[in-house]
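Subject: for your reference before the review

Hello V.,

The reviewers asked for a structural picture of the protein, and I figured it would be easier to keep everything in one thread rather than splitting it across files. Below is the amino acid sequence we used in the manuscript, unchanged from the supplementary table.
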Amino acid sequence: MNRSVPSADMPKQEERRAEATRRINATLAQLVAVERHDDVRQQLLEIIAGATGYRYALLSEMEADERHLRIVAAHMPGRLIQSAEALLGFTLIGHRVVNEPGEVLQTPPTELFDHNYEWRAEIPRPVSTAIEFLMGIRQIASIRLHTGDYYLGAANFFATQRTTDLALLEYLCNNHLVYAVRLIQEQAARERLHALRTQELQREIQVRQQAEEAIRTLYAITADQKMSFAEKVQALLEMGCRRFGLEVGIFSHIVEDEYRIEEVYAPGMPMQRGDIFPLHHTYCEETLKAHRPLSFEHAGGSRWARHPCYEIFRIEAYLGTAVH
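And here is what came back from the structure prediction:
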């Protein structure tokens, strides 16, 4: 499928390799800037295709979830991309396909095809034939990019004539393109990790700020000489509900098995001061037994679903502590 290179052409081949390597190394220097990654991919495809006799190229990379490959770069005229997309029915750059590593690892590192429908079985033959006619394709080379057992993606090169240099193509892809893809993916992973840590730090700062604000409000309420005890309790219950995202706040008095509401913050709820309930119908009974603060967020999905308080009142979230 690929012509061997005559000995007389060896110096020219070495010159092409040296020139391509020089241009690739100059391009790789741009990888320090994350915003240049797309341009680098595009330039590398152009350099490699031009040095090896291939007309068009596509680069697909493994996504972070390792379940999909995504086309990230294409070397072909814009009008040709638009025509191909119209025939295929999807946008080329960004198109995702399911990654099947078990199948991929069983195939040769480099594969040669004469037709699109051999290269991509999911493309219907009529569409494949139309694209081949549109692009004038005579040969397709698919090169798997990997480091060790880790699959990074694939590079596909399309030729309109058969005087291609497959050996040089494999050399440039396996020694330069795979290096660039690995660096890009590592930088992307670091960027994701940095963004995640930044978000975590921002959340921690927000929580600390909210806690500090709550403490300041608490001190302001307790130190206010103009407020009565009942007003202070009301203000504290409201503050607690807003702080923890709860709907009802109750300050109760418990005598033996009787639970009496002394103060309540429950906008729009049928609860008021003086209401009395059996203690065992409340979560507060469990708080007293625990001798420590008690909290949970989803009673219906836990052992609390069998508690009388949940069965009667359907209270999902609870935060309580004893006041002596």
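For the response letter, the relevant points are probably these. Residues 1-5 have pLDDT under 50 and may be disordered. The longest helix spans residues 166-223.

Happy to draft the paragraph if you're swamped.

O.
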